[in-house]
Amino acid sequence: MQKRIEKPFDWSRLRAFLATAQTGSLSAAARSLGLTQPTLGRQVSALEEELGLTLFERSGRALQLTDAGQDLLADAKAMGDAANRIALIAEGRAHSLEGVVRVTASDMSSTYVLPDILVRLRSMAPRLRVDVIAANDIRDILAREADIAIRHVRPTEPDLIARLIADAPAHLYASRDYLNARGTPVSADYLSTHDFVSMGDDERLIAALQEWGISIDAAQFTTSSANGSTAWALARKGFGIVPMSDDIARDFPDMVRLLEGAADITFPVWLVTHRDLHTSRRIRLVFDLLADMLKERMV
């Protein structure tokens, strides 16, 4: 029978448990937390005593989670994430997180992704102003046209800091009206009889689709727009098939995902800032918050 906890929970013990579970050893966990191994071991033992559970068993030099430890792990991760988020909010408010941060992203991300994220960011830092630069070209952070960029290619400039957020899933989509009129393709081979909406650069889109095992030619493009939001609107009106990230498409019930499993697409999402800007507490906090929120959205 588990012991009832009568006193406030010790978060340092939770951090010790999580680090040990993730690294598989007390020594590695201690290094990751900047503690000595005996100190971390005492925290884990104290948590086991407090809960009345054995959380780890030794397997050679490694530690393995017991069934009880496995049961606790998911909830412990959620509690740890919540604690980290609270700490970020507190740090932001304590250091007067205010001023202007310029974030650049594609027009699609600026329209359909950033607003939800910025609503949450505003609740954490109400005095911070975020200027969104919606642009499909790669804005030059080196020239300080933006402070933070969301990109789909990894930058090569040595003065930039880039973090890979996720390999975001995407698929081909078409409107229900289009599919009712033209039929739903049952395999990639049937795509040769269908229309497509181009996003402004036919050759680039054809090459990208080819990498994903989808062969089409320029004659299949019925319309085009270099503006992603416009291309998406054209596809919703039934002009043809278009590739789209799943996290955006899921908000549009009129659009149907095609060939799942046969035409699965992924594309990288990078968050980028200048090395000098990352030393700014304001930029660093916004950068880290955006990274967490984007990853949460894309999973």
From TrEMBL:
Enumerate the UniProt keywords alphabetically.
DNA-binding, Transcription, Transcription regulation
Note one Pfam family from the annotation: HTH_1
- InterPro entries in UniProt: LysR-type_TF_proteobact-type (IPR058163), LysR_HTH_N (IPR000847), LysR_subst-bd (IPR005119), WH-like_DNA-bd_sf (IPR036388), WH_DNA-bd_sf (IPR036390)
Q: Which residues form the HTH lysR-type domain?
A: 9-66
User: Which domain of life, per UniProt?
Assistant: Bacteria
Q: Which PANTHER family match?
A: HTH-TYPE TRANSCRIPTIONAL REGULATOR, TRANSCRIPTIONAL REGULATORY PROTEIN
UniProt record similarity statement = Belongs to the LysR transcriptional regulatory family.
The protein here is known as LysR family transcriptional regulator
Q: Which organism is it from?
A: Roseovarius phycicola
